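Lab channel / #folding
Pinned by the channel admin:
"Please post every new chain as: sequence first, then the structure tokens as a reply. Keep commentary short and put observations after the output so the thread stays searchable."

First post following the new format, from NK:
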Amino acid sequence: QVQLVESGGGYVQTGGSLRLSCTGSGRSIRWSPMGWFRQAPGKEREFVSAISRNSVNILYADSVKGRFTISRDNAKNTLFLQMTSLKPEDTAVYYCAAGASLSNIYYAGRGSNEYDNWGQGTQVTVSS
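Reply from TO:
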């Protein structure tokens, strides 16, 4: 089990930027594919981005492609999500998640059921 804690959320205006961090403890995240998901009020949790263990395979939802950048620093046990050109529709609670350990080093997944450890979430609010 890895415990995940997100930080970096906040309140920004349309067009602004935020950088989310997700720090793991209890087990190194280097063994897991990692992902970001978000959930807006009244909506289901949705995929945002994912990154393989070796950072070679990176996936984005179409809605964030070109605006968000996922990265990881395995030495620091931290996952990042750089968000730019933020829009009101990006308003949500953002969750990081760790996939099954020792997955293929090139694997990254879009499904929430592929992840078995979740953080508590951090709120991102984008004003219009």
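NK: The two ends are 39 Å apart (CA to CA).
TO: also worth noting, The chain has no helices and eleven strands.
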